[in-house]
Structure formats: C-alpha cells, structure tokens
C-alpha cells in the first residue's frame, strides 16, 4: 500500500509515522508531505531517510490512504479533491468532524461508523477521545444522560511550539520560581502559543473564544461525544484548561445515567472494554495520571466514585496520550479497520 | 494586642506574619510559635528578629488572638484549652470546621457567623474559599441548587515541602523533558509529598482516600460550602487535582440555580461583591489564571458562560492565592472583624 502522512513534520505527524512502523502497517511506499516551508526535511521510515515533499494533489497520486494532521484549513483545501481522486483520507483536524456524511470514529467505540468504505474519516479531538473512551462502556451499561467535563490538557496538544514555549519559560524562571508566590506580574514570561504564562500556571483558554463564551475546544468536547455516541441531545458542559504537562491529557468527568450504576459495575465495564485500562485502587494509591498514560495505546480510567447521595451519577478521572491514542494511533487504527475489512 | 502565630515557620504561618504587618493589624507583642523542631528559628516582624518558641499553653499566656496553621492534630491538641483560657483561636486546619459550635467564616461571605465573640473560628479550606467567594454572589442572585467542582491546586498547598518537591523534580528532568512524551516510567522522579511525579504531570489525589472513594480534600470541598452558605443539603461533587503550579489555586465550577441567571447578571453580581474581582472579557482575552491571582487579596472570577441550552446553570473559572486569600489573609480578616466589632 502507498501511505501518505500529511503534516509529516508536526508533532502528530511524527507520531503517525512512528505508529505506522510500530504496528507494522503494510506500507509499500511511504509518502511524507507537508507545507512548502517543511519540504526537504528528512523523515526516518523503515530504516530509510525519506525527504518530505510539498503537499499537492499530484503528490497524492496513487496514494491509498493519507493520514492527515495539518490543521483544519489545509484539510479543507485538499481532502475533498483527494478523496474524489480515490485517496482514503483520515483527518485529525476539526474540518470534517461534524459533517453528517463523514464518520467521526474511535474504532473501539463506534466501529460501525466505518462501514461502507468511507473515503473521508475524521479523528475526534484528543480530549474528546480521552473522555469518550472512558464514558462509552458506562453508557452501554447504564445509559448516559449528561456530561460535565473539565480538562487538564498538555502543551503538546499545541504541537512542538507549545512544548518549546513551556520549556523556554521554565528555563527563564529557573532559580526564581519561589518568587511566583508573590506578585511578579511584569516579569512573567509569555509567548504566542498560550498568551498567558504557561510555566507554573494553568490557562483556561484552549482555542479561540466563540460568541457564547465557550472556546472552540470546549465546543468540540461538547459536540463530538454526541456524534460518536449517537446521543444528539446529550447535554455536555465542557471547560478546557491548559496545564504545564508535556504529554498526556486528563479529564475530570461527572457522568449522569438513566439507570443506577455502582462503582463496581463501572469498574467491570471498564475492564471489559477495549481501548481503556482501569487504574483504580484507592487503597493502594492507584489512579491514572497523564504521565502514566504517555506512550500507551489505551486511556487510563480511575477515581471512579458515586456522586454523593445518588446511585445514577459517577465522577471519574481519565488520561490518555494526546498525540498517540488521542490522535496518531486512533488514525492508524482507523486505517487498519478500513483496509482489513476491505 | 498580643498576637500569636502558631506554625510560624510554615508556608501559611509566614504568610500570616507578613499579612499582619501589611494590614497594620494592631500588634503590640508578636509571639511566633511552632513545634519543638522549629523553636529557635528567627522570624522577622516589624523590623525586628523574633525567636520562634515552642507551642505550649504557657507560651500562649496573655495572648489575645492566635492565628493557627499547624495541622489538624496540633490544633485539636491545644485549641480547646487555649480558648478556655481566653485566647481567641483562628484556626486554618480542618480540626473544627465542621463543629456546629464553631463558625466557619469567610468574612466577605458569612460575617454573621462571627457574631457573639466566638473563641474558636475556623478558616475554610483554600479551594473551598476560592469556589465559595465566586459562587456566593451568584447564590444571592439566583439561589444555588448544586455544584460540580474540579480543582487545579498548586503545590504550595502542601507547604514548603510541596514547592521543593516540584522544583527538585523539574531540576532532575532538566534537558530530558521532551522524553516525557514517551514511556519513561522507571526514570520518573517521585517524592513523599505527592507520591506520583508532580513535575510536568497532574496528580488526582489531594489528601487521603476515604471509604467512599473521595479524598479528604474533596470531602472538605463538598461539606464546607454547605456550612458557609447555610445550604445543608446542597449537592456538591468535587474532584481535587494537584497541578505543577507554585502558588494560586484554580477551580472549574458548574453551578445550578433555582432561578434563571444571565451571564451579564452574574458578572454584575461579581463586580458588586466584596472579595472577588471580575476578569471576564473573552473578546480581549481576559480570564483569570492562578499566577494572576498570586499575591492578590481577592479571588479572580471569569469564563462565565451559560450551560448550553439552560438559563439556570453557569460554568465559570475562579482563582485565588491559596496561601493568602485561601488561608492567611482570611484568618487576619477574621481577626480584624472580631476585634473591630468588640
């Protein structure tokens, strides 16, 4: 198979390239593509150096499947034509996620959406994937009726630039960290990616503000679970917060159900479900953290407890590697599903 | 007045000492006290070096007011006797907070609890103070009926040791931070305060786990708002998460009300209330962060938006300096209130 990675020099693109190799996806020819600015960069694949080429329809000729992570506007600009030309496009951007003709797929949760050999498939938002992987097994057990989500999102969700901005600020503050307990506001380092200081701080803005006061990220965290879980009226209140973590997103979840569900039943549902792993043993200090999830193929779920006084609502905490299970791995799993089933 | 600070060498005790001076509390004699281990340490007060003495009832003789931040077991061991001997004890620990005979006071929220010259007054938990300062004005406007809280708590909430543990881990990881995006679990630095790595991570455990799966901190965040707001049946679901921030706690809040409330009305209520400051102008990227709250005497409130499809529920984000407004300042304000009203 001829496989392209579009956005091959980005944080997710590199993870896609790595994941294709790790999972021995049957790649006969590997085509790394990116913007003109990154053309000529070298990507390592199957022990060979491969030069990145500029993205164009011509460069995609003969490609069977393209894994795309180059931002929504790039995706919008070429995916419809590429798909019409026969390239199966698996897109990590938000461009097509809410398009009713495009499946929004987490293979462990809604594989049925991938029936019919779709030419465009959207990968859900990384925070959405973390939350939905945790909640889907509980939904099947007890019927989800509402979600309240507060996220703890790592800087790699903003790409290499996000990681660099955090580390530069940490370096600038080195030796003066304790002064942050007192007002030092004029001296605080800031950068273009996060606006506010992200080192030793949290920033309650991920994406741009929309007219209703929610950010674009929060809107995705509300809309996407509805589509993935086929619950078009599910009430979701999402708050997205950036935290000074390199990799791994966390989500604090309050889930309400139409039927009672015990902590034990919830744990059993998680244990039995694909794509998630239970890390929930308070007596032995076992709980999920973003760092523990980094590099894993599954979301970690723990801190499951009943909302006080209720038998139909659970609080829990879930973590997943935002570049891997939250993006690259999910895309490769979709490719595996599509091409194994053809 | 003869004023003692008990736990004078701790993070909150030092902040209490600083705050007494900043606010020109009428101190004639300053008595810093601590455990035997810290006795002899020097604390600066009113341009003089004062030696810390070991806590005892004898050392408290003649003291008018003691600001106490030395942990719940120390508080339990001496406060009842000290209060009986005539010392007004303002206690930052959890020891007496839920005692029905002890006021749990945030002076801007429930000053009426301080009537009658109580000899013991409890200062609420730092995360509780942050959340309640933000929610109390909205409760007065629209009648609070439930709270969902997810916290972003700084390491200074665990004292000097918490700050040191974070900074030591940051230093150990220096130069290798990007490797955290891949599994490096055996190499991760850990410490006694947070258990899991706190550098470039978040830890969903603050306090010890209780039988119902909530932590002690989460139990406080549920019980204390009920008492402060005189809403004994208020449903609260709290999730406490430690984040790698030096100072300043954040709380993501979903508040439901018995009456409709608009974003504009909520903003007006915050602007009109004492102890809080509105930082909420999405068009100009104005929102609260913990670092912005560090060193301030108020909680910052922003990101106010209506839960989608509802007119009686608001999401918001609040931040406050956990050592200052969340502890030391609140204690000094209680002392001011008690002694100004005598």
What do these coordinates show?
In chain A, α3 (126-142) packs parallel to α5 and α3 packs across α6. The mean pLDDT of chain A is 96. The longest helix of chain A has 17 residues, at 126-142. In chain A, strands 5-2-1-6-7-9-8 form a seven-stranded parallel beta sheet, sandwiched between helices. Chain A is globular. Chain A has helices at residues 11-22, 72-84, 126-142, 160-172, 216-228, 263-272, 290-293, 324-340, and strands at residues 2-6, 29-34, 42-45, 48-51, 53-54, 65-68, 88-91, 104-105, 120-123, 144-152, 236-239, 249-257, 276-278, 299-306, 313-320. Chain A starts with a strand and ends with a helix. In chain A, β13 (276-278), α7 and β14 form a beta-alpha-beta unit. Chain A contains eight helices and 15 strands. With 342 residues, chain A is an alpha/beta fold. Chains A and B meet through β10, α4, β11, β12 and α7 of A and β10, α4, β11, β12 and α7 of B.
Q: What proportion of the residues of chain A form beta strands (DSSP E)?
A: 15-25%
Largest interface: A-B, 71 and 71 residues
Q: Low-confidence runs of chain A (pLDDT<50, min 5 residues)?
A: none
* Secondary-structure class of chain A: alpha/beta
Query: Biggest sheet of chain A: strands, sense, closure?
Result: 7 strands, parallel
Query: What kind of assembly state do the chains in view correspond to?
Result: homodimer
Strand order of the largest sheet of chain A: 5-2-1-6-7-9-8
- Backbone CA Rg of chain A: 20 Å
Count of strand segments of chain A: 15
Mean pLDDT over the residues of chain A: 96
Estimate percent helicity of chain A.
25-40%
Number of helices of chain A: 8
- The H/E string of chain A reads EHEEEEEHEEEHEHHEEHEHEEH
Head-to-tail CA distance between termini of chain A: 13 Å
What would you call the shape of chain A?
Answer: globular
